[in-house]
Amino acid sequence: MANFKKTGGEEMSSIELIKVINEAEEQADKIKKDGVQEAKQIVADANKRASQLILEAEDKADAEYNLAISKAEEEAGKVYDNTIEQTSEKSRVILSEAEKNIQAGVKVVLERIVKSNVNC
Q1: How far is residue 3 from each of residues 23, 24, 50, measured CA to CA in Å?
Q2: Which residues form a coiled coil (predicted)?
């Protein structure tokens, strides 16, 4: 059996060396497993954060959409109200003119009726 020297100058047997190597391999395996687990956790955390960011972006987009719709409805309401007001004003003017024409027409008809009855 071969003998190896420990760091303190003592000799180490092959069996002790195999034990040390086995322990080192076990530690390496544990480090590797821990690293794999940590990497999986990092990926899971990243996926979770990505999902949160997507939800936040969707919420923000919905809020902006609703705000844009609200502003558009408000603007459409103003245009509608303005159009109704303008149309109502035009209708009042037309109605006023029509009333004048009707009154003038009634006056003409009454004058003719009166003239025709006076001449009888």
Answers
A1: 19, 19, 57
A2: 14-56
